[in-house]
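Re: duplicated header lines in exported structure tokens

Our pipeline writes sequence and tokens for each protein into one text file. With two proteins the header for the second block appears twice in some exports. Here is an export where it did not happen, for reference. First protein block:
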Amino acid sequence: MQSLWNSDDAAACGSDTLSQRVYSSRLLGQNPALVLHGGGNTSAKDTIPDFFGNDVEVLYIKGSGGDLATIGPDGFPAVKLDVLLRLAELPTLSDAEMVRQQRAAMLDPYGPNPSIEAVVHAVLPHKFVDHTHSDAVIALTNQPHGAALVRETWGDRVIVVPYVMPGFFLAKAVRELTQEADWSKVEGLILMHHGIFTFGADARESYERMIRLVTEAENALAQRGGGPEKAAVADAPNVLDANALRELAAVRREVSKTRGKAVLAFTDTSAEAAGFAARADAGPLATRGTLTPDHSIRMKRAPVVLGVDSAISDFAAAYQESHGRLQSGQPALDAAPRWAVWPGKGTIAFDTTLNGAAIIADIARHTVRTIQQAEAAGGWSALPERDLFEIEHWDLEQAKLKSAPAAKSLQGKIAIVSGAAAGIGRAIAEELHAQGAMVTGFDLNPETPVRLGGRPGLTGKVLNLTDYPAVQQAVEDVVRLYGGVDILVSNAGIFTAGANFEDMDPGNWAKSLEVNLTSHMKLLQFCVPYLKKGIDPAAVFVGSRNVAAPGAGAGSYSCAKAAVTQLVRVAALELAGDGVRVNIIHPDAVFDTELWTPEALTRSAERYNMTVEQYKTRNLMKTEIRSRDVAAMVAAMASPLFGKTTGAQIPVDGGNDRVI
């Protein structure tokens, strides 16, 4: 492991204690082999003036749940050091009281909660203290004879701390074990099954001690036959075919049902993940436990191992049994797995949010790599089941998840919207995304990726919807990316040149039927296998007022839209048994689209001897219909609000006397 310390960068950050603390913390945080997504914590001791100008000794400590990779000065609440030291002297202290007293000792009451390891950092006498969950250190300590390996690797340069529940109990243990320490010789603490602490008089010394000790752990692993090459790597990544994608969608549905809410399913079929999944012992190896106890809050104690139809229900039953046996009296958490080993294919991460699924996938990648190295170096041995359950159910850890923003109405849902680059389609894509869905928009417009890009979970793909092999591939790519399809909004359409039937251009007629009818049928056809395995699945088609109230000279458009309406009615009959709702909306006079320029609106209004505003509101309710109004209706129809409705035709037109 290489040191990333750069003296020029460090100086540019500022020479004061907090600035140096921020700089070296980010160095640690940007190395995933040391710190993953909010794991680890760092601190620095300093003397600063309080509100009255009196000097106070404080501990700058990472705020609970903060990310070292991006942390700033505001992420380090200043806590009165004397209070933390007095807490360490207490014979016992509840978690709730520890959190309360730490907050009461903060100089700024509006800062984040201090890390649950604040008291541990306080009892160490050094100015700077770093704590990480280094993969290499974990692989070395999580062995049948881990403590002996630690002694063999570092000798008296480290103090070994047997596994203790993090927080107050760990602080008591560290205080007791370090009271007689010769700090001129000791460079760090090795916490069995947990991680490593280093320290120093300045930020650089503490950071570079971390790098040095972790490098020595890497070397010790390699010498014992547990080098990086022991992580199996397939010849090439796995490419999930149509059958595998349908299996993936089915797995996602079962996990969502067990969890009680829609989840995303992120697959990792890289050469590394595929190599691990091809191991005969992949399942038994992965289910021994998490790398560190902290990971159990996101990963649970173990993954589900797929391969049999009952895998998810078996996992849930075993989890519930374990809860009853180990956590009796505490509220039960949901029994859904957070990740899966997919034999022969790779791994899958499950979560209700994009960020959550990405974090779990990242932790899973490090887990499968590290446990293979540990196994090769002498045998992977995780913490006992009871200890991992205690951490998972720990109020202080659960509080990190409970502090997340409230779930949106379409959280965890996966949507496809056609004709999504502009007008109604773009408004629909943005509305579904605003309500929590992962949305992929298809459109022929070459600007589609730019118009829909820039926001996580909202992407655009340039696609000719009459290129049916490409459409099928695009649908499958969505499943590969997110795990399924729950919502289809078939919106793409064109308005061909108007003409009476006697003057109808055969090409215009054929083009209208191809784009406005056949492409909708084919898109539905490609999505149906995944909608059948979706979460409260719904297909919404965008029709037209012309279906109920056609006008002369628009036959090619009106006939195609009428046929789409019939398609919806038949599809509703065919798919109801699989729980798929199929409905259609009929908008009218939606003028805030690229088709309606100010000049075109003026010309149309003049034909009716109206002002533009009168023309835009020429419905019974005298209200303007905007793209966002149509989008709101589509989002409602895709939500549980219309959960008992299928085969319906809903006008969005402000009331049209001809339709009524």
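Second protein block, exported in the same file:
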Amino acid sequence: MARKKSTESSKHTVNPNVEGLHAEILEQPICDTLELNYMPYAMSVIVSRAIPEIDGFKPSHRKLLYTMYKMGLLNGGRTKSANIVGQTMRLNPHGDAAIYETMVRLARGYEALLHPFVDSKGNFGKVYSRDMAYAASRYTEAKLDPICQELFRDIDADTVDFIDNYDNSMLEPTLLPTTFPNVLVSANMGIAVGMASNICGFNLREVCQTAIARIKNPECDLLETLPAPDFPTGGEILYDPKEMRQIYETGRGSFRVRAKWRYVKEGNLIEIYEIPYTTATEPIIDKVSELIKAGKIREIADMRDETDLNGLKLTIDLKRGVDPEKLMQKLFRSTPLMDSFSCNFNILIEGMPKVLGVGEILEEWTAWRSQCVRRRVYFQLQKKKDKLHLLQGLGKILLDIDKAIAIIRETEQEQDVVPNLMIGFGIDEIQAEYVAEIKLRNINKEYILKRIQETASLEAEIEDLQKTLDSEARIRKLIVSELEQVSKKFGTDRKTTLIHESDVPAADEEDETPDYPVHLFLSREGYFKKITPQSLRMSGEQKFKEGDGLLAAYETTNRAELLVFTDKCQVYKAKCAEFEDSKASVLGDYLPAKLSMDEGETVVALCLPGDYSGNILFVYENGKVAKIAASSYDTKTNRRRLTGAYCDKSPLKAVRMLTEEEELVLYSTEGRALVFSTEQLAPKTTRSSQGVAVLTLKRKHVLDRAVPLAESPIQNVSRYRTRSLPATGALLREEDTGETQISMEI
């Protein structure tokens, strides 16, 4: 109905500025627009542009390298980059600028890959510099690097499929038959539609050893031969085996990389000579300058970029008496000198994007490479069978060469030569064609005998190739042999070193966080504000959303830690300093979004644990109360979220931080109240403890709220106080209800 209505409501409009020009505007349902217009575009970006395939290349890389291969640049000399770009446009019609940028990233001079595929000459820029631009393609030269021999080996032996290019004028390979797992060796990043890929590079020698080990034993431990990624810019990986193992298993995760530096005592300076792969020298200098201007770093006299032909070097002049180790730890925490690399091993497998672990990638590569080797062996087998077939035909005329000559001489028409030879010797058309093409000088017994002697060796080779084709073990043995050759010929030592996180000194950020008094406000819907006393005095009434209101208010300092409890039995840890100073006239930060909570998760309470020396009280709807030691929520690592923060057996009614014991009033929906001391409860260390029964409830009634006795309107306290628990409490008298109920501060 909607589609019919859209068609009926189509209108014709006339452009008044162009005489005689009529434009027809048709309304189209949004679903049809997405299906017919957007989805093909999205799939094209995913499959044909942004996501690498099992050979480790995107289509743009593959088209460029194959063009250079066809230009004879694997063994020949360099040619102008502009020439290569122009030839590549026969396969990749996306403009010379895009093609040249692809070449730059693959070039040795750019230093973005551990094993570059383009041997470059001229200025190709640097991956570690944002402002160092590469020269135009007319000024630079390039050819294929020797390692490309392993990309194109046996490409003409039917190892991979070929397809027509965009205008059907030539063929191009769908994949390159790489003899090593290039997908793990070459770093690759791509952003598609609705998905992305970010693959870090690994050391070639380690990858080959790991591939061999996995072929021989699928259950081998990858970390033994492939401990961590390796980057062309070097640096140091803060190594956590558990974290790395998770990345290897899932294909997702992150790890930290930091710069390498040395202290030069003679000049009282620090030299930084390797930086993380994810950053550049300019952002580092900009951030350090910003920190110096803000007064957060006072130990630096000057910082400059001294990068030259010898490589990267950032120099920091120190003021007198500065400890270089402490300064670098501070710079690691607050500048891009230490950065995280987020892994997302998203690869196209037979046209479908899949996120795979390292083991799964090696398994897929081995299966694909086995297919390539099998196709190569089959191609060689057919070639030798064809040659044997010709020699067998030649052998049949050996006994009577004169008869063959007579048949040819007595045949009047050329087109009858082959048929007459077929009839005369009982051979097929291919064999007869071969015999008919023998040169006159070769019609002698010696030549024919020499050719026929090749038959025995050919039959042996064919038998061996057939055995290889029928044996998976032989195929795997060939792959292992090729991997060993590649590792020996092109393998290099690691550039990125590993430092165990346990060896890294703990970060002391306390000195960097400014400390001053603040007031905290939390609304019922989860909006949070941090306001300084001065701003609070100058402000008017607190602003809340319609239907929202104040849930809790605290006085503390900017260095205080926060525990934010949610309705999903989780607690999020944060620091006041992470929130910007606010005003009463704004709504504040929405905690579910600020703390990256799960979808639908809401805030139920906020606590200030201080030094985690007290207890946290949890009051549940079923009348139970749990007293949990605050130390149970203290963690040595920087974990931001703890699951199982409290018991999930009954809805939570109140949470209160206890720095000292106090008396509370529990109210039930029956109209009863009970006064008890928190001293009567024994603290528990298990966060999910159900607690103990305090308020006994009748059927269909629940605990309504909890209020500190000092904030309650109760006059006759002894009526409601109890010494033994659990208890039902006493019915509220009118003088103890008060005109308004004061809810517990949580």
